[in-house]
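Collaborator request log, item 7. Partner lab (contact: R.S.) asked for a structural prediction of Nucleoporin Pom152 to inform their binding assays.
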Amino acid sequence: MEGAPSIGAFPQTPAVSRRRQAPMSPPTSDRKQRSAATSSTNNSRLPVAPQPSGATTTPNSTPVIPTTILDAPTQRLYALAIYFFLFAWKLYDWAKLVEDNTESFWLFLKWIAIDLVFLFGLPELRIPWLELSQPFVVVLFFFHALLDWMFMFNIGLPWQAWLLGFVKVFYDREVAISEHNVKLSSILHNSSLIMGRQIINILPEGSAVLNPDHVPFCLGGDNKVAQIPMYFNATIPIEVELIRVDLDTNAQEVMKLSRGQLRDIERQAKKHTPEGGESVVQYSYPVKKAGAYRLGKVLDEYKLEVQRKSGFTFVVPCPRAWVGSTPSSERCIGDLTDLSLQVEGTPPLKIVYSQTINGKERGFHFQSLQPDGFSSPLSGSFHSTALTGPEDDEDISWARSQRIPVNLNESMHTSGEWQYSVDEVHDAFGNVVKYASPVDDPEGKPKPKHLVQKFVVKERPRVRLEGCDLKTPLKVAKGESKELPIRFEISGPTRDDTSHSLTWQFSPIDTLTESGDHGDVVLAGEHHARNAHDRPRISAPGLYTLKSVTAGSCEGEVQEPSSCLLLNPLEPKLTIRSEEIPDICAGNTIGLRVDLDLVGTPPFVIRYDEITNGYREPKKIVVYTLRHQMELIPKLAGIHQYIFTHIGDDVYRERKLTGPEYVLEQDVRPAATAIIQHSEGKTSACLGEEVDVPVLLLGDPPFTLEWETIYDGKRKYQKATDIQKSTYKIKTAPLTQGGEYTLALTSVQDKRNCRNFLRDEIKINVRRQSPRVAFGQIENRRKTMAVEGSTVKLPIRLTGEGPWKVSYVNLDDPSKVMEKTVRHDNDFLDVKSRGVFQIKDIWDNQCHGVVDSKASTFEVDWVPRPKLRMMVTPGVHESDGHYVLDPVCEGDVSGFEIDLKGTPPYHVEYEVRHQPGKGKGSLSRKAFDTAVSKAPIQMETTKAGLYTYTFNSLADNQYTNNRDFEPIVVQQKVNQKPTASFVKPGQTFKYCMSEQRNEESIPITLSGVAPFSLEFEIKHQSGAGTEIYRTPAINSHTYDIKIPRERLRLGIQQVRIRSVKDGSGCQSTTTEIGGPSVQVHLFDAPSIYPLETRTDYCVGDRISYTLSGTPPFEVWYTFDGVERKAKSPTTAFRRIAESPGEFVIKTVSDKGSECRAPVEIAKTIHPLPAVKISKGKNVRVDIHEGGEVEILFEFWGTPPFEFTYTRSSNARKGQKSQVLETRHDVSYEHSKVVRASQEGTYEVVAIKDKYCAFSTNGLDGEKNKESSQKLLKYT
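Returned to partner:
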């Protein structure tokens, strides 16, 4: 059977293969050599393996890698190592899928490809002994493909758990939320979460205990009955005596348990007694009277007295508290509360009360409340024996209920509403009575009135004087009154009621002491003010001192200044003394000098009337001192009378003056004088002009006036005599020389012949030249051509001082003289008519001028105006005074021609008024210039509507504004073509394959006549055929296009408007529209979903999600406020919760989409709960039978806590500890004390809080307690 070897047999070694491939009849020498080689090979190598059937030997059967470089065994070792590496990699991918509880088609394809390359590529390397046959490789490949299918599609295998455990031995790390690899076992197997144990050894002994937990009891209110617990350890009593001591009388009362009660104890003992064990029975004894209770005689079933503790258990009246009554609920700032809290109970007591000020509540308490000299065994530190009282029959009167008042005398420093409320009361035994507030009460009932006291605290007022004190007294006229300047203030918000009462002391002015204080006479005054501005009025002179202010029930504060002095000053008086003022020359009087002596309070106001020649003129003067002198010197001669009529000062109003002493009279003849009547003292004159200077003369005529004229250092004296009037006009000689003249008055005398010296003078500036005027030239001549109606500026040349007034006429109408004021010496005359203009006269600002006769005329003429005419051609016709062109379509070419006459170039202006079918029209103004007589006009056809062309202005080279031009109107109607355009052309719109709720649409705008129909061209980037999409009828001018998904493909496509057609039948194609386009990118959007619906996780849990989309994925999430990014090569995303915090997934994206899909998946990671028993230590305690041990459990986590602990047999030498019983308990606090009386080792094996659980021996913290579990016994 040489030709049929078994499949998978090892190939022959290279030497044997070569030998078999030799020719059939080799030479002898060759055969010998081969024989020798064969012999040598057989002696040094392994036996030859059978050759596969059909194998042919070729020269290429040598290994690809020569054995001289890498020998055959090493090559086989490397191939095997690569195979096992790939198999380990495959196991790793499989373990990830098992942990994620998912499957992966891509991993299946990956390993199919890797196995295909490896298995079919291995024989090609021709490694000795690994030259596998083709059928064997195919079978082996199908076996690996089956294995890949089972692995990558997560098909359950019988040996899956064993294999997964084997993989975990070598690699037990997973990616945590912090993006680091962590070892899961190190998180889950944390020995520090459960620590400590309690070991109890019991010495067998029966006992009876009353209230071993030292629970306080009280009677009162809702507590009508107190249940006192009794514990019987290892005994069944047949007689139990209970001794009650009355707290008030110390009388003892013996009570026995009834037979029924004893039978209940016996039934409980038999029910809970384990086989071969001892029982601990609890029985609650009801009592309805207050007192001190202790066990008396206790006999067991053998009528032997059982060991018992003789300590007292006190049942006292429940403590209570209330607020004592107060006479008034109103207080003022700074008052004391004067409040009493009554507390009743067993001292020392504690009361908790709250103080609320304007809605802000604060809590307070008083503790150790007891009567004076009171002594109690409970006053010291709290011990377990304190609640049971003394062990001997001592006096227990200290436990009686007593009433203790608590006085609250707090200063009320804030205004508003105050409230005191009793919240809790505690007695010495720890009994607590709480009074629910309205917030805590389910029905919102207010507290009873005896528990609450409210006060209304008001602000205290303040008063002071302003504007008056001892240095600044008040002054008031006699018989008059004045308000006392009191300033009333009260803090806090503005009150509607500011009424208050004031009191003050008053001493008359003549009773004050030398120091200015109140004297022997002191009068009291008061005022009841209705508001803050109501002030008392005072009139009597003296000293006023504020003493008190009261607003409501609150007495206020009087601030400084508080004293005010009121005075009645003297009434004003006037004494007049006068003397005449004489003239030295004439010897007569020229006026009066009057001295005024005053009494009163300055300033004074004096009024008097001056009567001159029967004319009365009232006058007044203000005097700021007590003496004043005034001179009354009139300028006119005659009898002058002065009558002083009234006087007033700062206090008294004007008082009338009567009597002859207040009348003065004088006959005045003033000295002669002369005054030049000119306001500025200087004037100007023209060359050769005479100047008139007016002079006012004062005195008795006739007058003689002398003056002099000064020019160029020369003086000329002149004199005028026998002047009979009071005014005189000096007229100078013609001033023929230019320059400055001075005319000065030297003296004057009247009929008394007293010559008086004068100083008045006036300066006269005389021009040195007369003004002149002449026309200027335009282009070297005094003639011009201008546009009709325009203003022609004729140049004029002027000399002199402006402004000038020029008179001129148009010789075509010489009767009309025109004048113009010119302000510049080179100016213009504006004319608006044609003709010959001639200058007639000229004046400058003062002098008359001369007209240049050679340049006094200027000629003006008009240029002819331009004209415009419409060219009538086919398609143009005239209608109703305007021209109409045939209608055209929008975008068509249309126009007409106009004929122009005038001076080229021409400037034509016209208006184009566009009136669309709807909406407001538009108006545009256009203009063009042309140098030819015929000009074409292009019509507007870009927009539909009625176009009206109005030619309203024609200008040529001369006329820029032809006012005589008659407008020409041309009309044409343009029919509209529809248009469509993208609102955002060129923009890329991104869509998901599945439609989203708020998906963006492609907005377009349309114009034309509705309805519209659109045709779109959709061209995919891949080059596939063009898709045509037609919209239904669109009845509006805006439209949001949503292209159906069946018209789109994944990827980028270009959407272009192909054509649009409106209701009028007009159609626009792509070429006419301009071809704008948008891009539409269609994505298969990624998404992420949690595999579990819960939101609360624990440390060590796996948080798993599934992803949809194209791997790889990027996931953005935050953990405890820190943002992180993770990558997932597969559709499964999982992280280990290594620490507590808030884990929120924000966005997710995949490889095939540029969009980050926003999500909000929040998970809360809670820490694992922890528990310590006996402070985390191993504690051993020995107790007697019936005794007890307090086992302290301390918890960390989120309440409530559920924990399971076991009692095991205490380890003995050579014996293994066994679990005797398991107990499940609940704690709503972070610590709990359990009392145990049975022997054994107590350990916590499982702990669970509100969210998480942890177990040391495989117990699931979330399982319910089994009913068969044994409960721990209490004593």
